[in-house]
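Why do we bother with a discrete structure alphabet at all? Because it lets us treat a fold like text: something you can write down, compare, and reason about line by line. To make this less abstract, here is a complete entry for AfsA/ScbA. Read it the way you would read a sentence in a foreign language you are learning: slowly, and without expecting to understand everything at once.
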Amino acid sequence: MWTFRGYGLCGGRSPAIQVEVYRHLPSQKTEHSLCCYLRATQPDPRVTSVRCSFRTPEGGDRMLTTLPNTPSTMTDERPVSAAEVHKLDANEVLLTDWQHIGADRFSVSARWPARHRFYAEKQDQRDALLLVECVRQSIPMLCHSAYDTPFGFRQAWENLRFAVEPSMLARNGTDLAIRLDISCSDVIRRGSRLGGMTMDVQASWQGVPAAIVRTKFNNQSPVVYQRLRGANGDVATAHAAALAPGRPVSSELVGRHRASDVVLAPAPDHPPYHWFLRNDLAHPILFDHPVDHSPGMLLLETARQAALARCTRAATVVGMTTRFIHYAEFDAPCLVSTAPLPTADSRDGARTVQVTLSQNDRVLFTADVITARV
């Protein structure tokens, strides 16, 4: 147990103030360091800063740095770290802060960049999957911060459905500050630990609807994950057995700027509109940190590129309905197949393509991808 004491600074006086720690994360630099986020439980407008000391379990006192009286330290808004969203690169953290606003309800602030080194469509549209990545980051962040899930637990998608307002994709040029209103339901607990939940998200910009997202995921302890994955759960073994990524298809075909961002490889012995998945383990975004299987965001990107490859005119993805059925392994070819689905006529030329990923003769992932003409 860590005991914290705090007092406020206001000129020559120190008005009474209570300070509590609501997050503390082990530092990635040293196992003895802590990254602590503080907030005042009895804020005083006269207080210009907060200084705290803490007592370690061994009985020693150390002084924390003085914190200014800013919204991030003196309100219920809580900053987000790279560790909480399961990223190594802090520049890829899209969430800025969050608030608990009710029973299983949260408000999350995020940035939707106009430009990104990977999530950037060839048609110069704002990227819908970058908004989905904001939601993806919200899953581990809320699991750790709001539902007391220890680090080391893994969150696995079961399904995901999203629809983006097409007009928002045309708002390019500047970053957008997005608000995610999140409601969690079907919350499953196994003992004292979170087992999984369904999350409904309404994304908005300055009160203007931007997207709706609904997803279900499960929360796996290290023991459960290892039991599910067996020998495939060892990262070093999985990487050593990984097939080399095949030659990418044309970046123009799939709406990418660079060949290195293409996730489809030709499948010459299969019918048209079939490809193989490319697992480029050195990709800085899709493989931000070592993993033992193809990440969920890679599968979504695969569905996007496969759907665009079927389009006969310039298009952008505005929605998906997906199912995550099995893990996609590195050591066997993963076939990507597509088929058009009936779509009602619409002004924006919306079309729906069904994308299926199969490996070793079993379906791993399916997505009904909606594209709109640009």
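What the structure line is telling us, in plain words: Residues 55 and 61 are 5 Å apart (CA to CA). The chain has a mean pLDDT of 83.
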